Amino acid sequence: MVTEGERKDLMLRIIDLCESVSKRGVDPFDVEVKEFFERLRAILPKLRDWDELHLDIDAVLGLANVIFHQGEWIKYKSSLLYLDPLLITWKLHTLSPKELSEVFVGSWHPVVDMECLTPHGIKEAMDYWTNLPNFGERARLDATEVLPEEVALQELARLGIISEEEFVTILERVWGELKERANGGKISYWDFITARTFEETVDRAWLVSFLVSYGYATLEVKPLEEEILLKPLPKPLKLERVATFSVPISISRSEWQRRREHG
Amino acid sequence: MAEEKDIVELREKVARAAQLLLFRRHMQPGVKAWELKRDLGRNYLEVIKVLEGELGKLGLTVKKVEEGEEGSESDRYFVTMRGHPAVSEARTFGWRIDDMAILTVALSYILSKRGKAPLKEVERVLEEKFPRWRVEQDIDRFIRRGYLAEDDEGTLYVGWRTRAEVDQKALLGLLLGREKVSEEKVRPESESGVTEEEHEAEEDAQ
Fold first, then answer.
1. Considering only CA atoms, which of B146, B139, B111, B143 is closest in space to residue B124?
2. Which residue of A has its CA nearest to B96?
3. B chain contacts of residue A216, beta-carbon cutoff 8 Å
4. Angle at B147 between CA B194 and CA B140, to 5 degrees
5. A200/B contact by beta carbon, under 8 A
6. What are phi and psi of B65, to 5 degrees?
7. CA distance to partner chain B, nearest, from residue A144 (Å)
8. Minimal Cα distance from A214: which residue of B?
9. Band (B200; pLDDT cuts 50, 70, 90)
10. SS3 of B48, please?
């Protein structure tokens, strides 16, 4: 005897499985369509209310969709583009970046196009220049205050402040320093970032934010003791497997001076 | 006399087709079939064929990318290189070895998953070989440039530019046919597999 709970559970399980085929790319042949239809058929006379019937419809529609995906799968597998995904993943794993770049270049036929200035564009530029107030007038125009915001790494690279390679090297140097100073344990955030100058301190705080964001270190906040601790990790942590949160830390010149004087 | 007039007209149309295809007039390069039809007339495919012959002498070709049903007026035409550049040339176009490698991994993985794969999955595969910050930065850039496309649910697809520029069958074929270079033959490399000299050469080239 199948209880109402078991019936609902079965239908919800079928719906979820069907969704995983259409949304997450699960192999549609992994779904035992025939068996599920037989089980749905067996419980159909026992369905009591509208909710159960609605679930039954969803489950049947889901299974029909799985059959559609099976058809598409067969079409794709029989096409010339089909190659074993496992084999491809294995190849991607074993080849070096240089070899992979050669694979790309060998199949690459870049688009050729040119950007040009049209007569319309020239007229627009001329109108803009003619109507542009002179510098003295522009200085008197109302200006909107823009609040400071986070500068992305790409933006810094674009401005030439830091290059991508340099950044990784610096990050790894700071990580090494953190590991050395923490000596297998934890170290106070302020002790670690505080440097001789305020600018250097801000710079170190910025780098530490990347260490934490990229999983090189963890941050422990003790609100009662008003203490923030940094703990370096032996190897970078994959962040999608842990719960993450943001911790805003304000660094002012006065705070830096106070900590420099009082430790 | 009439024949001469036809030749002159055809030449004008071929020149017009070249301008349409080569000069970017929209955000994306290339031109749609309906635009060619509007400017060149109903026989635009014949004009394109003549143009293709002329471009072939310069190592270029006209590529059609289907959008929607076969023979749709939304199909887009591009001028692309007939052959493929060498790795050293690609680097002078502003591409790094790592960028090309990341795109190869992302595209091959997506293609092996029937043309779509969750972004997180692609990132996880890439992070086995490349630093996280570079993976994130490159994926964003490839989406902006049209090599990859992402939907609201975080699924990655092959983008319009890949369909225009990359021979997908050749990509997978080359990947599977590629033999791993034995360790003895490989020069000492940095973590990403690119030597310092190569990085310096890349910097110089850019």
1. B139
2. A101
3. none
4. 70
5. no
6. -115, 120
7. 29
8. B132
9. very low
10. helix
Which fold is adopted by the domain B87-205? Arc Repressor Mutant, subunit A (1.10.10)
Owner of token pair 């502003």: B94
Domain residues of chain B, as ranges? Answer: 2-81, 87-205
- Inter-chain CB pairs, A–B, below 8 Å: 182
The answer to whether the CB atoms of B129 and A97 lie below 8 A apart is yes
What are the backbone dihedrals phi and psi of residue B20, each rounded to the nearest 5 degrees, phi first? -60, -40
Chain B positions touching A116 (Cβ under 8 A) are 23-24
Q: B-contacting residues of A 67-126, CB under 8 Å?
A: 72-73, 76, 80-81, 83-85, 87-89, 91-116
List of domains in chain A: 4-76 (no CATH), 153-262 (1.10.10.580)
How close B122 comes to chain A (CA, Å)?
A: 11
CB within 8 A of B10, min separation 6: which ones?
B47, B50
Distance from CA of B42 to the nearest CA of A (A): 24
Question: Which pLDDT does position A140 carry in this prediction?
Answer: 64
Structure letter (DSSP) for residue A39: H
Chain B contacts of A214, Cβ < 8 Å? 132-133
**B112 to chain A nearest CA, in Å?**
5
pLDDT of A156 > 70? The answer is: no
pLDDT at A44 over 80: yes
Kindly report the three-state secondary structure assignment for every residue of A20-39.
Answer: HHHHHCCCHHHCCHHHHHHH
DSSP-derived pairing of the beta strands B116-118 and A187-188: unpaired
What tens digit of pLDDT does each residue of B108-166 get?
Answer: 999 888 788 999 999 999 998 899 888 999 999 999 999 999 988 889 999 999 999 99
**What's the complex ipTM?**
0.82
Structure tokens at A81: 């583009």
**pLDDT tens-digit series, residues A86-145:** 888 888 888 999 999 999 999 999 999 887 777 878 888 898 888 887 777 766 655 566
Q: What is the pTM of this model?
A: 0.55
- Measured CA to CA, the distance from residue B111 to residue A82 in angstroms comes to 8
